[in-house]
Amino acid sequence: MLHTLGGLRTTRHTNIDEQVAIFLHIIAHNVKNQVMIGRFQRSGETISKIITRVCKAVKRLHPHLLKKPEPVTENSTDQRWKWFKNCLGALDGTHIKCLVSLKDKPKYKTRKNDIATNVLGVWSQDMQFIYVLPGWEGSAADGRVLRDALLRPHGLKVPRPGYYLVDVGYTNGEGFLAPYRCQRYHLNDWRAGHQPTTPKELFNMRHSSARNVIERCFCILKARWEILRDNSYYPIDLKNKIIMACCLLHNYIRKEMTIDPIENRFEVDEGTGDVGGGDDDHITYVGVVEKGRNYRNWTITEDAKLVEALVNMVNIGGFKADNGFKSGYLQYLETALKEKNS
């Protein structure tokens, strides 16, 4: 697809497979150029050109990878969406850290003092992107970003009588359905046996359950691409293109794989729901919990023993890699900790 539709070509130094491998490695692990030079034995200039070249090729696939909106039918059996006939999906914004010039930092600073771009994401019921708009400053309100998306010549379109589920940070009107204000809304509010007591609370509970797809999608997106979880080493213009490419690749994976490997590996917290605008309602941290593990709090003594074992392992040599530790280090740590506890 990148070759035939995206226009990606083999160069004098690298073929298409290697270019794609370099690009995927960078966005999946957010590694520096110096690490890539040693790993792929290419010059820094070559790697920088590959990032830009592959990113542009992925972006050219957007007509093929973006999901076409499909309204919820009257006979839908989906327990989350069957209550919202003609609904096209959900939308919200999230903050993704970025690198900007010193003079632009005040505009990109969020309420949490992060330097980030406000990205509008529109999702379908099956957790695929319908529309993405990166690039707005982190200080911009969600409603302002949405207005810009609607006013663009090739921006977001809401076919009638369709609509999207939104939180109360957006205007409740034609094409956008927000929950009732001043009513319980978070999914956590309905756990532990609590049930709605009024029609408005019942609506909010069902609205939150369906719109929670946006929270889960942002979690999976950031869990898959580490370059979206922290500040990268690329200027804002390129970072926006990378964000778009990550979203398109997310759709490709969801289309090609019956089970999303990230969704299968991790249990994403679904106990979230936005009840207002502002930065506190956006996902700026990705928390994932591996399934099948028993967790407990470590004591101060155990923490000290772990740090001591890690220092000894580094001093011994043979386990340190450019971007972490080599395979087999966990077995060494386990043995070292058992010896210290015996």
Automatic annotation (TrEMBL):
<dbReference type="Pfam" id="PF26138">
    <property type="entry name" value="DUF8040"/>
</dbReference>
<dbReference type="GO" id="GO:0016787">
    <property type="term" value="F:hydrolase activity"/>
</dbReference>
<keyword id="KW-0539">Nucleus</keyword>
<feature type="domain" description="DUF8040">
    <location>
        <begin position="2"/>
        <end position="58"/>
    </location>
</feature>
<dbReference type="GO" id="GO:0046872">
    <property type="term" value="F:metal ion binding"/>
</dbReference>
<keyword id="KW-0378">Hydrolase</keyword>
<protein>
    <recommendedName>
        <fullName>DDE Tnp4 domain-containing protein</fullName>
    </recommendedName>
</protein>
<feature type="domain" description="DDE Tnp4">
    <location>
        <begin position="91"/>
        <end position="251"/>
    </location>
</feature>
<dbReference type="InterPro" id="IPR027806">
    <property type="entry name" value="HARBI1_dom"/>
</dbReference>
<keyword id="KW-0479">Metal-binding</keyword>
<dbReference type="GO" id="GO:0005634">
    <property type="term" value="C:nucleus"/>
</dbReference>
<dbReference type="InterPro" id="IPR045249">
    <property type="entry name" value="HARBI1-like"/>
</dbReference>
<dbReference type="InterPro" id="IPR058353">
    <property type="entry name" value="DUF8040"/>
</dbReference>
<dbReference type="GO" id="GO:0004518">
    <property type="term" value="F:nuclease activity"/>
</dbReference>
<dbReference type="Pfam" id="PF13359">
    <property type="entry name" value="DDE_Tnp_4"/>
</dbReference>
<comment type="similarity">
    <text>Belongs to the HARBI1 family.</text>
</comment>
<keyword id="KW-0540">Nuclease</keyword>
